[in-house]
Amino acid sequence: AQVLARYSGGVFGGQPAVTRHTYGDGRAWYLSTLPDPAALRTLLTRAADEAGVRPPLNPLPAGVEAVHRGDLLFLLNHGTEPVTVRLPGGRCEDLLTDHSFEGMITLGRFGVAVLRQTPG
Known about the structure:
Elements: E1 2-6, E2 16-23, E3 26-31, H1 37-51, E4 64-69, E5 72-77, E6 83-94, E7 100-107, E8 112-118
Antiparallel strand pairs: 1-2, 2-3, 4-5, 5-8, 6-7, 6-8
């Protein structure tokens, strides 16, 4: 395993805190601690980049989750304020409301949309 980060002090000072093992086409990461949010974000971003994982929409407003399931795009606003999300090219229909959107959609507080791209 390759050591990516070590403890900087304390009883575990100098010991591995984050390791990565490469085997065949795969990789396994091990964290022996819960890093602060900024460090965890950096580690998860690096692991996703190395795995070729890309977000369905980028950028996303804070608190918004986007997930592809087949040809559907699920958008969830986990926040208490409305947010506007930039959509991928083309016209989309929200299967929950039967409204069509192109370019942008506004999700209300705790809002949800299930979008399917429509021809045209």
